[in-house]
Design a protein that fits this description.
6-stranded antiparallel sheet, alpha+beta, 4 helices, about 30% strand, globular, about 160 residues
Length: about 160
C-alpha cells in the first residue's frame, strides 16, 4: 500500500464518519413535519380529554415531548397555559417576551393565530432545552378557540 492510497483510505474513513455524525445530529432534532404532527396530535388530545388534563400532560407528561420538540399553549392575551420545556412559565403573562434580537415572540404567535388560524412563525431565536444554546427557531401553531397550540423546531 502506497502512502497515497493509505492517505486516501484514511480520508474516506474520515469523511464517512463526518457524514454519519451529521446524520446522528440531525436525528437528534425534530423536523418541521414532526412539529406539525405533534400540534395536530395535541389539538386532538385537547378535544378528547379537555384542557385541564391536556395542559397537565403537555407540561408534566412525556407523551408530547420528543427530543427538542415539545408543546406550548398560550391564550390570546399572552398568558402561558402549558409549556413542555419549562413548567415555571405556566400561568405567567408573557405577552412582552422578546428574543435576543428584540422580536416580540408571543405577539408574533398571537398575530398569526388571530389572522390565519394556523401556520409557521419563523426567524426568531430561543433557548434549545437539549443543547442549552440560543438557536434559530420556527414555531408551527394552530388556534384552538381562544388559545394557540404550538411546537417549534430549532435551526442551528
Amino acid at each position: 500500500m502506497t502512502i497515497f492510497s493509505a492517505f486516501k483510505k484514511t480520508l474516506q474513513l474520515l469523511l464517512a464518519s463526518l457524514v454519519m455524525a451529521g446524520a446522528a445530529q440531525a436525528a437528534d432534532q425534530g423536523t418541521a413535519a414532526e412539529a406539525e404532527a405533534m400540534v395536530k396530535k395535541a389539538v386532538a388530545y385537547i378535544k378528547t380529554n379537555g384542557t385541564e388534563k391536556a395542559y397537565e400532560e403537555f407540561t408534566s407528561g412525556k407523551s408530547f415531548k420528543d427530543r427538542d420538540l415539545y408543546i406550548i399553549v398560550y391564550d390570546l392575551n399572552g398568558k402561558n397555559l402549558a409549556q413542555g420545556a419549562n413548567p415555571k412559565l405556566v400561568g405567567k403573562d408573557l405577552i412582552g417576551l422578546k428574543d435576543p434580537d428584540g422580536k416580540p415572540l408571543i405577539q408574533m404567535f398571537i398575530e398569526l393565530a388571530k389572522t390565519k388560524g394556523k401556520g409557521w412563525v419563523e426567524g426568531y431565536k430561543f433557548l434549545n432545552p437539549v443543547t442549552q444554546k440560543i438557536e434559530g427557531k420556527a414555531m408551527y401553531l394552530e388556534r384552538v378557540g381562544e388559545t394557540l397550540v404550538g411546537c417549534g423546531v430549532y435551526k442551528n
